[in-house]
Specification:
The complex is a heterodimer of chains A (about 120) and B (about 110). With about 120 residues, chain A is mostly beta strands. Chain A is about 0% helix and about 55% strand. Chain B has no helices and eleven strands. The N and C termini of chain B lie far apart (about 35 Å). The chains are: A mainly beta (about 120), B mainly beta (about 110).
Chain lengths: ~120, ~110
């Protein structure tokens, strides 16, 4: 059974760094792209970027390029998204997804709250 | 970026109703379209991919149609479990985009 298990909710202050994770199981991790999707009440669902764990080829939505870093560790079948300096506007629910063209499996979501 | 526009934004319906949601792409995407259902506090779940293919395990009352720029999701007979928000998503180009969502409520 394919599962994507994400790290727990985080509360951070503006300017702090953060890395959230997505552990995959139930399929060959190196054979499928993993993506990250942001959800906010105001902007809905937004695609952030994707990574191919076999060679860590990462591609970003223009809106998120330079704002986050997506990475993967194939030895522990885990993907990550990292922020160097959080802003209040990064407050959102973040989902990892497995890609089969479309998003065929979703993680449970990680809520990130950025507030002073 | 390709813009995806869903209509309506909110839909009031009753159990047993036939419900249709429309999604329009700002440029042609062939049939590279998926539909998702999201319930409060849960992650979205795929219902339809490639415009009309039913994901495994999804009830047959859900169907999708369309190609190019116009797509529809139909629920043939609305069930209590179907009250949720529905999103379309294009995956034709590398920069995917989602529709803004359609909330189906009583």
């Amino acid at each position: 059974e394919v599962q994507l298990v994400q790290s727990k909710a985080e509360v951070k202050k503006p300017g702090e760094s953060l890395k959230i994770s997505c552990e995959a199981s139930g399929y060959r991790f190196t054979n499928s792209w993993i993506g990250w999707v942001r959800q906010t009440p105001g902007k809905g669902l937004e695609w952030m970027g994707i990574i191919f764990p076999r060679d860590s080829d990462a591609r970003y939505s223009p809106s998120f390029q330079g704002q986050v870093t997506i990475s993967a560790d194939k030895s522990i079948t885990t993907a990550y998204v990292h922020w160097n300096s959080l802003k209040a506007s990064d407050t959102a629910m973040y989902y990892c997804v497995r890609l089969n063209g479309y998003c065929d499996y979703w993680g449970q979501g990680t809520l990130v709250t950025v507030s002073s | 970026d390709i813009q995806m526009t869903q209509s309506p934004s909110t839909l009031s319906a009753s159990v047993g109703d036939r419900v249709t949601i429309t999604c329009r792409a700002s440029q042609t995407i062939s049939t590279w379209l998926a539909w998702y259902q999201q319930k409060p506090g849960k992650a979205p779940k795929v219902l339809i991919y490639k415009a009309s293919s039913l994901e495994s395990g999804v009830p047959s009352r859900f169907s999708g149609s369309g190609s190019g720029t116009e797509f529809t999701l139909t629920i043939s007979s609305l069930q209590p479990d179907d009250f949720a928000t529905y999103y379309c998503q294009q995956y034709d180009t590398f920069t995917w985009t989602f529709g803004q969502g359609t909330k189906v409520e009583i």
